[in-house]
Structure formats: C-alpha cells, structure tokens
C-alpha cells in the first residue's frame, strides 16, 4: 500500500495523506542550522548541535506522537485548521506534503481557502524560512485570522527536559513589532539568541504558552485561536513561545503571502556588554532584511535548488531501471548528505541528546559523501582523527559543537581505529590530496599532543596489529561493528555487562569481522605507505595483513561459513556448533570484501550459506537462529527479543556488504536481488508493513522471528545510506575511484541493459556509456576513451583534460 508517490522530475516524494503509518520526515539545512520536519509540520530546529543548541522544543514519547512543530492555525469562521493537518487534525478538503531536497511543501485546503507552506533553510543563512501563501478560491470575500506557533527550547535539550526547578524561572523574551526574540541564557553571557518574525504588521502576539493555549488545553485547541484573539502575553519564566496573530481579508481569487523566519544569532565572542540581558539585534536585523520580501525568499529557494542540482550532477546514472535511477540520482545521495551532517545525533529515533557524532559511524558516512563535497569530508576527517587516543584507539563518539570526545562512552570498540583508514583511503582516492596526510591533528582532542594525520593512520593500524588474541585474530574489546556483541562479559549485574578485568580469561574475545576489516584496510594502509614512499613500512604492514589472512583461514572458518568470533573463554560464536547464533552476516560480508577465501573457494560457500540461512523476503538477517534467552557471555545482543535489532533483525547496513561480496565473486543477479530487497523505492508499495519513509533507508527491519516481520525502525540515520551508495555506484554499476583514476567494472543482473553514467572526479567530468550486447553480468572487454581503445578498467588521467567520453564494452 502507498501513502504517496515519487515525483522524480521535481526530486520530491509526495505524501497524499496526513495519516502515514509513522511520521515521515525530512531534513532542512545543509551546514549549521538544521530542522527536522514531518509530513504534518512536526519537528524542531537546532544550530550545529541538537543537544547543546536546541532552538525549538520537541517532546519524545508524546501523545499524540509528533505533536510539536512550527504550526500555522487558520481561523476561518468557525473552522480552525492547519495546512499540514496537525495539530488540530481538522479534516481538510485537500492535503499534500512534498518532501524535497532540503525543503518541504505543504498544501492544505478547507472551505475554499488554500494554504501553501514552503519550509526551507537557505544555504548561507542560519534561519528557517516559512513562506505561507493564502488564497481565497471561493466566490465570497473571507476574513480570517492567522496564528503562528513555535515553542522555544531552553537551549540545552537535556536540561530542558529535566531541570525544571531552574528552567521554569529562566525563560525571557522581548517583543519588538512583529518580532519575538527568545533570549533565555543571554543574561549569563551565552551570547546566542533566536527570534521568530513575520514580514507583516501583527494584530496580536503571545509569548507565554499557558496564556496562548489556556491551561488544560493542548496545542490542538489553543484558547487564543478559538476566541480569535491573541493575549499579547509576555513570557517570564515558564514556557516561552512565539505566536503572531494576523487578520487577513481576502477578496474572491485574492492571494496573500507571508514570510515567517526562525533565526539563530550570535555576537562576536569577545563582545563585552554592560547590560547583559539587552540583546544586540544587528545580526537578527541582517537576516530579517535579507528575507523581508517574497522575491528574496524565492531567490533563496532557487539558490537552494541550484545547490542540490550542482551536487547531484557529480554522480548521475541513466539506466532502464527507474528505481535505480531515482535512488542513485536523488534519494540515496540525499540521505548520504543527511547522515554526513547528523551522524547518529538527531532523528525521530535518535533524541539528539545522546549519540552525537560516532567515530565509526561518521567514518562510514563519509564513504557515501566524499564525492559530493570533498572539502567538507576533509574537515570531518581531521575532526574525527582528533578524537583518537595516542595508542590508536578512539573515543567512540564526540559532540558536534565542542568536538570533544564523549567521556561517558569512552573507547574500547576495537573496530573504530580501522574505520579511520577506510575514510582516509576513500578521501585520497576521490581527491588525490595527499597533503591531508601532513596535517597536524590532535590526539585525545588536545593540540599539545598533535601529530600528522599519517601518524594517526599508523597508530590505527598499530593498535589493531598489537591487539590480537589467542587465535591471532583481533581482540574485539567492548564490541565491534555490532555494538551489542559484548563478548568480554563477566558480570551478571544489570548494567554491568562489561568489565575490563574479570576472571582469569581476561578480555581476550576475538572478532573475525575485525579480521576482515584488518585485511581490507590494512591493505589500504600498506598502499598509502607505498604511495607516500614509505616502502619499508608498507612491507611490514603487508606482512601483518598476510598473516591475518592466514589466521582467518586457520581459525575463522567454520566449514560452510566464516565464524563470527571467539568469546572471552575462547568459545566459538557464530558456529554450527553453537546452540543459537550459528551464522552471522558480518564476517561473510567483510571477509569476502577483503578478498579472504575467494581464491580458496570459500567465498561462494559462505555466500550460499547466507542465502540459505539468513535470507528473507525483506532482507538478510544478522544471524540465525535468534537468541531466545539472555547469554552472559554474549551480552546485549541477547537482550533484544528475537528478530529485533541486533538479535537477528535485518540490519540494512550490512546487507550491502553481502551484495558487494556477491559482486566480488561475480554474481550480479544475486547482488542485485539483495540490493532490491531493502531498497526504499522497490518496497514503496509495502509501506503499510514497512511503515517508515519509503524514500530513505532505515537502520533495521524486523527479522523473521519477530511478530512484526518486515516492519522497519530508526529511519534516516544509518550507515546503510553510505554503504548502499557504495554498493550501487561502485560495486554494481562499477565506477570506482582509485588512487590512479576512475575504474569501471560493472556487475549487473541479466537483462539490466545498457546504461550511461556521468561522474565528476578531480575536476573533470567522465561520461560513461556502458554497452552490454551479450547481456553478461560482469566483465569489461575494453574501454574506448575519446575514441581510443584502452586495455584494463582504469581511465588514464591526462593533465588538464576536463572531459572524458568513455565507452565501456562489457563482454
Ligand atoms: C545498538 C543499540 C544498542 C546500543 C548499545 C547501538 O548501536 O543499535 O541497539 O542498545 O548500540 O550502546
Ligand atoms: O555499528 C553500529 C552503529 O555504530 C550504531 N548503530 C548500530 C550498529 C550495529 O550495532
């Protein structure tokens, strides 16, 4: 069942009912100012950091769900409604929400009055613009009252929902004309404030939530709106809001536009001010002047669209499969940008107060983003690397605003260091910018301990090389990619599942998955060493990698598939000998991506086992059989009910690993079958089962053991976006950035047909024309580059050349 449809020409998803299975959201903002916005106008805004600088308030666990946002009430006679249906939920004569790239549009109609709302964050100004157009489509004049409504958050989102004894006395606002300034915290010299304004004279305002709503009422039926009369309330403590009332007369056919702005402002850091609660309004004034007229807003909107057109022109495919085109050209790349910006911080499933930027997460997000804005990827790599410790391990998470590592979580996830190599290798291949390796980067967030980025990579590899267990496989530490595989558990006390010291075994659990990473990214490290002339170091690294390869063959193969791990007592995890959890997806994917077992004939066996034991119609599960009880030696993984999350859920993130692994052994049909199973566009028509947004990936789909098999959760912020883009663009369609240039080696399903692909790379544009007359799934006979035949798969780079026309002859 569908709740809308794709509009590819406009790069939008069109939602045709407010009653979607879950809120279907979008992200506004590309750099510093961000908003989350749902298909019924719910959501919130923040500046840089969803925890520390939360501008508007959102309530989790709310009823109704998703019932706070930027709302516009229209009082037309006795009927009161909102263009996005919430929060009044008055039934509308027409409703539509269009989520586009960095903007959302809403169309609501009631009793001959049409309201069109366009919400976006301009590319270069820290504010959200809401342009509201009211049009009288009836043949009688209308006198209506329009009320806006946003609820301010008192900045730190955690304090905001906990520290009421203080919060309820700190709220301060200032009202000047049509502008409401929110200046809580300004007094204590935090130097920031926000404002909400409209480009028209107002007939009233409210800044006290209780006065506007009326005690005992919700935002679904504010007393001020019901009575058509703002209270002109001035908030002092309690709950500051911004609401303006504008009375509008519309002749038949007449249309009026209003521009509402939510802005964020800061004073220069060294600014001294004598009267600390008198805010400096210049920054706000500048923003207001910039968007005072509709034409200015339209120009800013055109600029946003141009921004996205330019970004997406960097990778564009035209195949015969509309799902592939739509995902590759629009939604998958868009989600890559969102995950790059948000990491795992702020979504409708991530509260914005917890996870911040993940070390492994952001490194992986970068893999799908680096081609879009390499300069920002560069900056991010340096930020991430600065949270690494001197011994090569790393803070698992850091706070986006302060860029400080999260002490509560700390370190100990032994896959983390290797992901840094993955990110840097991807950046180097994309840009050829080896100078990044010489950048001085802090350790432990302290510049006094800085070293070059190359040194950081060296420590990453050294950490992995020197943390091996009894089987010469990497020690897992607290967990690897699978956060919940806590194999060094010794305590039965709730909340104490991990201890670094325990009984005699010690924390010796080992991970075959990290071994796969070690081979893959150890090879990359060795290659980087070679590229920068460190031959000796490359040799040493290569030797260690080769030994690891052998260690996996010796101790990481279970007979029909790769083992997952050894626990702290050296018992096998993910073996046919286990009672439950006999086979896991992760090592099958990553060992084969690393090339382990390919020439030995193990890869095919492992992938066949995946198909036989882990596959479902909704995607491939993490492991089977699911754990039916809690296992002390496995930890959190067994805490979930069977089929959910890490306990045998379908993690979309590692489905592409298996798909890529299939392309490694040349099975294009199977690779694509796997791609399709979790691909949002392909499963749009089961939205009533899947439930999350059909235009983006979710982290997890309930596995076969779950009552709600096929139901997705945790949409948007998942490494799935990056890995699926890597899979589709590099493994299936086959265009890979390499140190020496672009290579092309598609692995496609039978019947996929010819396709063309445009790829911008290091300042040049490559036009690929892939011909497959014999319908093979893999194999390139030769390339023709600007008419000249070229052997191999890499397009030779010529100095200063701006365009490459490459015909790829598959055979
Ligand atoms: C998992 C969660 C788990 C958490 C533990 C996450 O990555 O997805 O299910 O509770 O790690 O920190
Ligand atoms: O790998 C993790 C990721 O860092 C956060 N989400 C869940 C994944 C699997 O545990």
UniProtKB/TrEMBL annotation:
The UniProt keyword set, sorted, is: Glycosyltransferase, Transferase
Any single GO BP term: carbohydrate metabolic process
- Pfam families named in the record: GH94_b-supersand (PF06165), Glyco_hydro_94 (PF17167)
Mind listing the GO molecular function terms for this protein?
Answer: carbohydrate binding; glycosyltransferase activity
Task: State the superkingdom.
Answer: Bacteria
Residues forming the Glycosyl hydrolase 94 catalytic domain are 307-734
Q: Which stretches make up the Glycosyl hydrolase 94 supersandwich domain?
A: 11-277
SMART domains documented for this protein: CBM_X
Q: What is this protein called?
A: Glycosyl transferase
Q: Which organism is it from?
A: Blautia segnis
């Amino acid at each position: 069942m569908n709740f809308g449809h794709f509009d590819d020409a406009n790069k939008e998803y069109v939602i045709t009912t407010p009653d979607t299975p879950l809120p279907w959201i979008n992200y506004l903002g590309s750099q510093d100012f961000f908003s989350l916005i749902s298909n019924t106008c719910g959501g919130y805004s923040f500046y840089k950091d969803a925890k520390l600088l939360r501008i508007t308030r959102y309530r989790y666990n709310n009823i109704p769900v998703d019932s706070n946002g930027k709302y516009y009430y229209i009082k037309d006679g006795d009927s009161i409604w909102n263009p996005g249906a919430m929060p009044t939920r008055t039934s509308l004569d027409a409703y539509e929400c269009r989520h586009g790239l960095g903007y959302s549009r809403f169309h609501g109609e009631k009793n001959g009055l049409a309201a069109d709302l366009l919400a976006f964050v301009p590319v270069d100004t820290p504010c959200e613009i809401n342009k509201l157009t009211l049009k009288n489509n009836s043949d009688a004049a209308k006198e209506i009252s329009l009320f806006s409504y946003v609820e301010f958050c008192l900045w730190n989102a955690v304090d905001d929902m906990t520290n009421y004894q203080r919060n309820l006395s700190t709220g301060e606002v200032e009202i000047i004309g049509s502008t409401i300034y929110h200046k809580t915290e300004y007094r204590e010299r935090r130097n920031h404030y926000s404002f909400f304004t409209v480009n028209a004279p107002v007939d009233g305002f409210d800044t006290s939530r209780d006065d506007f709503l009326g005690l005992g009422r919700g935002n679904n039926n504010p007393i001020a709106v019901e009575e058509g009369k703002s209270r002109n309330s001035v908030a002092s403590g309690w709950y500051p809001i911004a609401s303006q009332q504008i009375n509008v007369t519309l002749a038949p056919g007449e249309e009026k536009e209003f521009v509402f702005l939510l802005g964020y402002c800061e004073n220069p850091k060294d600014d001294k001010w004598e009267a600390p609660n008198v805010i400096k309004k210049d920054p706000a004034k500048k923003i207001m002047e910039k968007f005072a007229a509709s034409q200015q807003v339209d120009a800013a909107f055109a600029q946003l669209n141009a921004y996205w057109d330019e970004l997406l022109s960097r990778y564009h495919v035209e195949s015969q499969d509309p799902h592939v085109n739509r995902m590759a050209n629009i939604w998958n790349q868009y989600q890559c940008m969102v995950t790059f910006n948000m990491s795992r911080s702020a979504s409708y499933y991530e509260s914005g107060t917890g996870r911040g930027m993940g070390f492994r997460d952001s490194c992986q997000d970068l893999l799908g983003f680096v081609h879009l804005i390499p300069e920002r990827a560069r900056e991010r790599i340096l930020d991430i690397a600065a949270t690494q410790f001197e011994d090569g391990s790393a803070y698992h998470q850091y706070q986006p605003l302060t860029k400080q590592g999260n002490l509560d979580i700390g370190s100990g996830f032994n896959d983390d260091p290797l992901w840094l190599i993955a990110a840097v290798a991807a950046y180097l291949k994309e840009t050829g910018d080896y100078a990044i390796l010489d950048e001085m980067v802090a350790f432990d967030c302290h510049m006094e301990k800085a070293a070059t980025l190359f040194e950081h990579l060296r420590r990453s590899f050294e950490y992995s090389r020197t943390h091996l267990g009894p089987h010469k496989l990497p020690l897992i530490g607290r967990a690897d990619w699978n956060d919940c595989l806590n194999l060094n558990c010794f305590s039965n006390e709730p909340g104490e599942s991990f201890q670094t010291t325990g009984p005699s075994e010690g924390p010796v659990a080992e991970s075959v998955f990290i071994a796969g990473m070690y081979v893959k990214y150890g090879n990359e490290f060795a290659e980087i060493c070679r590229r920068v002339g460190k031959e000796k170091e490359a040799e040493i690294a290569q030797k260690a990698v080769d030994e690891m390869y052998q260690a996996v063959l010796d101790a990481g193969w279970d007979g029909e598939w790769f083992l997952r791990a050894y626990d702290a007592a050296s018992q096998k995890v993910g073996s046919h000998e286990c009672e439950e959890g006999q086979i896991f997806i992760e090592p099958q994917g990553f060992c084969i991506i690393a090339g382990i077992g390919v020439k030995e004939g193990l890869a095919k066996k492992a992938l066949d086992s995946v198909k036989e034991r882990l596959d479902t119609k909704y995607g491939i599960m993490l492991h089977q059989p699911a754990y039916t009880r809690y296992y002390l030696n496995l930890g959190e993984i067994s805490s979930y009910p069977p089929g959910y999350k890490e306990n045998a859920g379908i993690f979309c993130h590692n489905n592409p690993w298996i798909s890529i692994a299939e392309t490694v052994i040349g099975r294009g049909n199977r690779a694509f079958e796997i791609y399709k199973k979790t691909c949002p566009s392909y499963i749009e028509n089961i939205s009533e089962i899947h439930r999350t947004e059909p235009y983006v990936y979710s982290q997890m789909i309930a596995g076969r053991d779950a009552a709600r098999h096929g139901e997705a959760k945790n949409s948007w912020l998942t490494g799935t976006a990056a890995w699926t883009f890597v899979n589709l663009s590099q493994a299936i369609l086959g265009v890979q950035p390499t140190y020496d240039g672009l290579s092309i080696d598609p692995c496609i399903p039978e019947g996929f047909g010819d396709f063309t692909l445009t790829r911008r790379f290091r300042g040049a544009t490559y036009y690929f024309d892939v011909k497959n007359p014999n319908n093979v799934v893999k194999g390139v006979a030769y390339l023709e580059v600007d008419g000249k035949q070229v052997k191999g798969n890499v397009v030779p780079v010529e100095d200063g050349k701006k365009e490459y026309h490459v015909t790829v002859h598959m055979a």
